[in-house]
Design goal:
22% of the residues lie in helices and 28% in strands. With 184 residues, it is of the alpha/beta class.
């Protein structure tokens, strides 16, 4: 019992000291700590994080120099690691959403400071939020592009490229992702 108390106390001290360091140097670009520490760091820099959220390492956070205010993860969400979250615009994960390993969520379509492409393809450039609704599972290696809404209680098959909205209660897969079947 005393051993458990010491372990919990040390964990709290570790979380607090890491947050103090990051408050001085700014929010980390890569979360590489244990799940409770990662969730605490996200909260400390402005993310709206619900209860019982699991954030496994590593998670790369892009375009968040001023903090994580564009990230919302409601209760019981899970990030299973090796995720890439682009916070140029808002990402909202509603209650119970799970992102498998290697899921990339993009909220912008820029051309990495390539002036030629930005000039010639200006009509394709944009920033739009991503919404993943309640109870949705996104499997490993999926890419979700800007402006997409994935409906509630849906499943996205591994390796899919989601470039359009997916309705509620569906299984979608492929490149580009298409609805394969409805889920009861």
């Amino acid at each position: 019992m005393m051993r458990e108390y010491v372990r919990k106390t040390l964990n709290l001290l570790l979380k607090a000291s890491m947050i103090i360091v990051f408050k001085i140097v700014g929010p980390p670009r890569i979360l590489r700590y244990g799940s409770p520490v990662n969730a605490a760091i996200l909260r400390a820099f402005g993310a709206d994080i619900g209860e019982d959220v699991m954030v496994y390492s590593p998670v790369v956070i892009h375009n968040a120099a001023d903090g994580y205010a564009n990230l919302t993860m409601k209760d019981h969400c899970v990030l299973l690691g090796y995720n890439f979250l682009d916070l140029t615009s808002r990402i909202t994960l509603e209650k119970g959403v799970s992102l498998g390993p290697g899921v990339t969520v993009m909220t912008h379509n820029e051309y990495n400071d390539n002036a030629f492409l930005v000039e010639h393809l200006a009509h394709t450039v944009g920033k739009k939020p991503v919404l993943i609704k309640e109870g949705t599972g996104v499997k490993a290696g999926t890419l979700i592009v800007h402006g997409v809404t994935i409906g509630s209680n849906s499943v996205i098959g591994g390796g899919a490229v989601v470039n359009r909205d997916i309705p509620d209660h569906c299984f979608a897969a492929g490149v580009p992702a298409r609805v394969v079947k409805e889920i009861a």
